[in-house]
Prior knowledge:
Number of domains: 2
Keywords: Hydrolase, Membrane, Transmembrane, Transmembrane helix
Radius of gyration: 22 Å
Order of helices and strands: HHHHHHHHHHHHHHH
Number of helices: 15
Distance between the termini: 70 Å
Structural class: mainly alpha
Number of strands: 0
Helix content: over 70%
Protein name: GTP cyclohydrolase
Strand content: under 5%
GO molecular function: acyltransferase activity, transferring groups other than amino-acyl groups; hydrolase activity
Shape: globular
Amino acid sequence: MPHPISRMPLIDAFKAIAALLVLANHFASYGPLAAIAREAYPELMDWLFEYGRMAVQVFLVIAGFLAARGLSHSGGALAGSPLPLIWKRYLRLSIPYLAAIGLAIVAAALADQWMNDDAIPAPVTLRQWLAHALLLQGILGVDALSAGVWYIAIDFQLFALMALLLWAGRVRIVAPALVLLVATTSLFWFNRDPELDNWAIYFFGSYGLGAAAWWASERRLPLWLGIIAGVAIAALVIDFRLRIALALVVAITLACSRRSGLLEHWPEIRPLSFIGRISYSLFLVHFPVLLLANAVHTRLGLSSPESAVFGLFAALTASLLAATAFYRWVESPAASQRIVLMLGWLVEQAQIRTSKLSALTRRA
């Protein structure tokens, strides 16, 4: 059995490449910069628009892999209530996410002063903000305040669903079997219905492949990989989806690399490792940066393909710089802990003041 690991440079590399592809997809999709660049490089921009989004499958598989590692390291059931774990996951996702939503609102307001484009979200409403805060914007049909935020809601749903399944099993064998059964059902049925793409069940096939990859690396690898591949290939024979084929390749790569030891030793490429570490921050802040880059380009009255390409590269560079700062001050464990403590202090002070006000009211 492989020993528990802390550093996983291969996962960092996968996350870095996937994050950059998602950014490239959004850069090829939103604003006048994308429209102008497409005129000069139609094939490249069309490829990024069509296939860049599939990098999300890499995140889904990795998320399932890491969730299995944390929730059910050896394929066991959750003994205690999953609610504290789900709450902890919500805080982990929502603190940087809500900070980034604030940046997106400000960036949209600034960009709206300089350009008129469909990429700019409409002014935020209280209902819209609450839907985002509760990670329900997709389910409620609320317009997104930033590109890609649907994924954060799906990630939370997936984690919650897996935790509940592992808790519902209550038996060592039954718990992972429930996860794999729901994943198989997703691959064969739910993932084939695009109307379900606001719900975890649509994506649980890829997430479950990631979880199965972790358990395969803990057990008899050839047998488990044969089962994983057999189920996924059968689903692809019924309805071929390139995104599921990609998820299968990533899952098998993770399982084999952990078993062989490559997962914790390769590749030692510092830029990829760094981008992988800040990939969530990069995912969150790049759209506000892109909006501002489009607004500045429009404000300057530029229209050449060269200026558009330069603007896109400038937006990428600015996104990496902003993500680095965002990770340090908002997303990192130390920063998140400070924010949670500050919020707790504010709630405590509000409760004290409310108690004092109620006491004064009773005396009056």
